[in-house]
Amino acid sequence: MGRLVVDLSDRFAVSTWSLHRKLGSTYPYKPGDLAYPVRQPTYGEGTIELINVPQQCADHGIFRVEICSFHLPSLLPSYLGDLRKAAEEASVKLQTLLVEDGDLSNSETAQRDAEWMAGWIDVAVALGAENMRVIAGKAQPTDSALTLVETHLHRLAELAIAAGIRLVIENWFDLLPGPAEVNRILDALRSKVGLNGDFGNWERAGKYEDLAKIMGRAELCHAKGRYSATGLDAEDYVRCIKLSNAAGYQGPFTLIYDSTYHGDEWSGILEERDCIANVFKEKSA
Question: Which residues form the Xylose isomerase-like TIM barrel domain (predicted)?
Answer without folding.
Answer: 55-257
